[in-house]
Write a structure and sequence with these properties.
Aspartate Aminotransferase, domain 2, Aspartate Aminotransferase, domain 1, 14 strands, alpha/beta, 2 domains, about 400 residues, single chain
């Protein structure tokens, strides 16, 4: 019998997720050979010794007996009501528990909201660089990602005029990631107000990814987009993974605010697709109320002297001490996005640099081109290791860059 290869879905040709791609697979091979890899490609706090607050674990344990049945497709009421209380505490007053959907992480919420909206060829404005799950989810749901540039020379801030220039009759929504992954940029109120006005004038749905909202450094301040968007629909995404160091719980949510009157059919569609997956992980949902209403331990980590603050400073120092690198200092999140001065090399490619760093020095980073940018001289690393470990990382990077320069 003549056998044929099983064909893949053509739509996957537009999907990239290299954060867990070829480099990560090679890192696994090296670990199996006995090498110790410093994995900086993924923001996974538990791998670096960060613990979920004990009160959240206890809340899950105490409610395990109530977690064995399916819950409502939108999530358990105490979790959704806790999200409402958080939103109201931030000035978003027009949200009820019916406007909140709990998902298996923000990743699932992104997929559900896009699947309920997009028809073939519909366009979604996405920042470049972006967190590639957004681009992939748009493509997987038959939409077209259209990138607005957040240029390094502009502090990775978007340009409202460019956003306006990209609008077409097919533009359905705009994505904001603030604080930003991968750059750590935090947007000002004035910038967000201008983007909100563009969305309202053109009736774009605003998808605001705010999963790093409390990871801020220095004088940086996070402005919830939902406080600025009133005359169109705003979807705010958040969850337990990052601020609460609970990635494995797989609990995220999307809260809808703004003009819901003209979004009734869409919101019904979101509920329909949420119903098809029955419900989100129930045990983890019991941690939401305790997390949002309890002591915010993230502030200890991000304030001066805290572990995240110190690791971020170690990245800044490592770049400043390098003769090859530069950096727009991150004001938020748990990443940095350094640049390499390519004029110092006969040729330079971010993927090749990342592979050589992995093979020779056993450090795993994510090439900048993984984040849908046209240039190939950046890389992303997470700031989760200790400051001492980060110093080691930059020493190893400098050695690799030195060896690449002499070729």
């Amino acid at each position: 019998m003549l056998k044929t290869q099983i064909k893949t879905n053509d739509i996957l040709q537009g999907v990239r997720y290299e954060i867990r791609g070829e480099l990560a697979a090679r890192a696994v091979e090296l670990e199996r050979q006995g090498y110790e890899i410093i994995s900086l490609n993924i923001g996974n706090p538990g791998l670096f010794g960060f613990r979920t607050p004990e009160t959240m674990r206890l809340a899950m344990i105490e409610n395990l007996g109530q977690s064995e049945a399916y819950c409502h497709q939108k999530g358990i009421f105490p979790a959704r009501e806790a999200v409402v209380m958080q939103q109201q505490g931030r000035g978003v007053m027009d949200v009820t528990a019916d406007d909140v959907f709990i998902g298996n992480g923000v990743s699932e919420c992104i997929d559900l909201t896009l699947r309920a909206m997009l028809n073939s060829g519909d366009e979604v404005l996405i920042p470049s660089p972006d967190y590639p799950l957004w681009s992939a989810s748009v493509a997987l749901n038959h939409g077209t990602p259209v990138y607005y540039r957040c240029q390094p020379e502009n502090g990775f801030q978007p340009d409202p005029d460019e956003i306006r220039s990209l609008l077409t009759k097919r533009t359905r929504a705009i994505v904001l990631i603030n604080p930003n992954n991968p750059t750590g940029a935090v947007y000002s109120r004035e910038l967000l107000e201008e983007i909100a006005a563009i969305a309202e004038q053109n009736q774009l749905v605003v998808f605001s990814d705010e999963i790093y909202d409390e990871m801020l450094y220095g004088n940086a301040k996070h402005i919830p987009m939902a406080t600025l968007v009133h005359d169109t629909l705003c979807a705010t995404f958040n969850g337990l993974s990052k601020v609460y160091r609970a990635c494995g719980y797989r609990v995220g949510w999307v809260a809808f605010s703004g003009d819901r009157e003209n979004a009734r059919d869409y919101l019904h569609a979101v509920e329909l697709v949420a119903s098809l997956r029955l419900c989100a992980n129930v045990p983890g949902q019991w941690a939401v109320q305790t997390a949002l209403g309890g002591y915010q331990s993230i502030l200890e980590l991000t304030s001066q002297g805290g572990r995240l603050f110190q690791a971020r400073q170690a990245v800044i120092d490592g770049v400043n001490n390098s003769k090859f690198m530069s950096l727009v200092e991150p004001d938020g999140a748990m990443y940095a996005f350094p640049a390499i001065d390519t004029s110092m090399f006969s040729s330079f490619d971010d993927q090749a640099f990342a592979m050589e760093l992995l093979e020779k020095k056993h450090v795993l980073i994510a090439p900048g081109s993984s984040f849908n940018v046209p240039y190939r001289n950046h890389f992303r690393l997470t700031t989760l290791p200790t400051d001492r470990k980060m110093q080691t990382v930059f020493e190893r990077m400098e050695d690799v860059l030195e060896s690449m320069q002499t070729r």
